Amino acid sequence: MVSSCGGPFVLLVDDDAIGRASIARLLDHAGHSCIDVGSGREALDLCDDRCPRLVITDLCMPGLDGQDLGRCLRDRFPGLALILITAQQLDAGLLGELRNTFDEVLSKPVDCDRLIDRVSHLAV
Q1: Angle between helices 112-122 and 17-29 (to 10 degrees)
Q2: C-alpha dist (Å) from residue 79 to 2, 15, 72, 75, 89
Q3: Relative to the CA of 102, which of 22, 66, 67, 118 has its CA 20 to 30 Å away?
Q4: Residues 82, 100, 71, CA angle at the centre, nearest 5°?
Q5: Is residue 53 classed as helix, strand or coil in its secondary structure?
Q6: Please, what's the b/e burial string for 69-79 (b: 16 or more CB within 10 A of its CB; e: otherwise)?
């Protein structure tokens, strides 16, 4: 958690409304307060006012993609926990680069138990 930010919530960022709603319900059901947005720009705007304990973002989104969003958030809030989810096949080079920014990189379809475990561990 980034102490200067406050706000005990998880921010979920995904341009796929159906997938986003499913993950948001999963997080809420597991007891994690969740705010979900449909773009990287919306996420950055929200973080201007309130900083989450954890951000979960999709990789492939129009405009500001998940990788660039992660870099922006890491620069602004170095201690913020970040999880990336993607359906894209990642080669070793890209995976290594993503792991330099993100605390966890998960593949879609998301393993629900694994996601909740990582969120519970990182959103403290």
Answers
A1: 60
A2: 6, 25, 12, 9, 27
A3: 22
A4: 60
A5: coil
A6: bbebbbeebee
Annotated domain spans of the chain: 10-122
Cis bond leading into 109, ω under 30°? yes
pLDDT computed for residue 86 by the predictor: 95
Q: 50 is written with which tokens? A: 């309130």
Q: Which CATH class is domain 10-122?
A: alpha beta
Whether the predicted model's global pTM rises above the 0.85 cut: yes
pLDDT, average across residues 1-15: 69
Query: Cα Rg for the chain, rounded, in angstroms?
Result: 13
